[in-house]
Amino acid sequence: MSGSASYTVTHDDAQAIDDCWNRIGVHGDKSCPLLVEHIHCRNCSVYSAAATRLLDRYALPQDQRDLSLAPVDNDVVTRSLLMFRLGEEWLGLTTRSLVEVAPLQPIHSLPHRRSRALLGVANVRGALVACLSLVELLDLEPGAAAVAGARVMPRMLIVAAKGGPVVVPVDEVDGIHAIDERILASASQSTGKYTRGVLPFKGRSLRWLDEEQLLSAVARSLS
Prior knowledge:
Layout: H1 3-16, H2 20-23, H3 35-38, H4 45-56, E1 78-86, E2 89-94, E3 98-103, E4 107-108, E5 118-124, E6 127-132, H5 134-137, E7 155-161, E8 164-170, E9 172-180, H6 181-185, E10 195-201, E11 204-209, H7 211-222
Parallel strand pairs: 2-11, 6-8
Antiparallel strand pairs: 1-2, 1-9, 3-7, 4-5, 5-6, 7-8, 10-11
């Protein structure tokens, strides 16, 4: 998961939208005459219109396939999962659907949200990227339960969704781990949404997410 991969995706988005906030707005030379009235670019109708254009690009035909979701070779012995926490629950997501783990960025809400899961947009290297709540998509209990005395650093996961990257805030990231396919195959069944199974890991109960179902839900939330 290189930073350059994320930059390529978000840079293309920036080229397609006039990012005046980076040139004459709060992230530029602050010469925009509208700043006197709006104080910050996120309060401006131009910024909101750019965010709306971004979200419109996610509304792709549902039969379009994402090549990053190709079937896994059966000969693979291990599978790489990113382990992260939302509230009290630990989850695992295959790294093939992940672009990057990034520092937490401010989320700017939109006046007319298309779904409850859509939190707004975040500025990633100068480009507006849709921000979604996995807590809402997975029907989890909100809250950030951390170990007493532990230094916890919330992060944003940049996920390769149809139509472009999306970011999802998480409470904590444990790291990437290679899990034996035999362990994954023996995972207990779960009734949780978009879940392949539940398995023990490092003394925790880990919920292994089904990335195809999850990314389909992400696409529906943005369309």
